[in-house]
Amino acid sequence: MENKLCKLLGIKYPVISGGMVWCSGWRLASAVSNNGGLGLIGAGSMHPETLREHIHKCKDATSKPFGVNVPMLYPELDKIIDIIIEEKVPIVVTSAGNPKTYTQRFHDAGIIVMHVVSSTKFALKAQEAGVDAVIAEGFEAGGHNGRDETTSFALIPGVSQVLSIPLVAAGGMYNGQSLAAALALGADGIQIGTRFALSTESSANNIFKELCRNLKEGDTILTLKQLAPVRLIKNKFCNEILAMEQQGKTTEELRAHLGKGRAKKGIFEGDTDEGELEIGQIASLIKKEEAVKEIFDDIISGYNHTMGMLPKNF
């Protein structure tokens, strides 16, 4: 299944795991890389020295390429970037900021850079900034999201028409059918978040995982648009936020109610009432616990089956 994304990243399959806060530690990242994809460590929930520890453990657990996801709004960003360069991490995925700020510095250190976008406009800006690949994420995705609410099936074709660098489709990506569809729409691979977030190797709390496996269609919603749009499970905290938004509360009031550590409380500690429970729409299809190897076996067999079902003159 080798293509230009696989060649760029040195991976067997064009499948990337999302760098998700409180889910994407070294166990998940190394398992994805060992099974032929690109595993990402999510730096967004880590103090600098915690990240260094995860990088060391990931290196011990895999000889394959792996990367680090870096939200550029991170308060200790310079320390995080120093560690990534010092530890010679081969691949970085940047998000939530201007990729131009650090891309050249990463390139000078021999690091491949991908950047997450939610629109064609920002995909072009990322390419102009010199990144090596773009991850275009549709509105279906969990966690922080684009304000325009563009779905993956609308976003990917438009982005693919304007890019000359590899394109990764994200948001609602789940299995082999997703991979086949993304390639048909012009992408070179997919990034899967939710399914890996609920895997055995994810560091998310089992209470959170079990809740997600019982979700139905419509049980998540995009909210907090005045701050930074984020897809959440409709729990007590989310309903409070929705009520505040309907009442016209200010950005400062919403930020105060959000407070600090809400995602950790929900995803990592398992507080399903007061926690900020970030997950994608595709969670409604996930009903059982799976190890990363099982997920990859399903993706590859599903992809081959889907391609075999297409008419030969397709």
UniProtKB/TrEMBL annotation:
Superkingdom of the source species: Bacteria
Record InterPro entries: Aldolase_TIM, NMO
SUPFAM superfamilies according to UniProt: Inosine monophosphate dehydrogenase (IMPDH) (SSF51412)
GO molecular function, one term: dioxygenase activity
Pfam family, one: NMO
Protein name listed in UniProt: 2-nitropropane dioxygenase
UniProt keyword list: Dioxygenase, Flavoprotein, FMN, Oxidoreductase
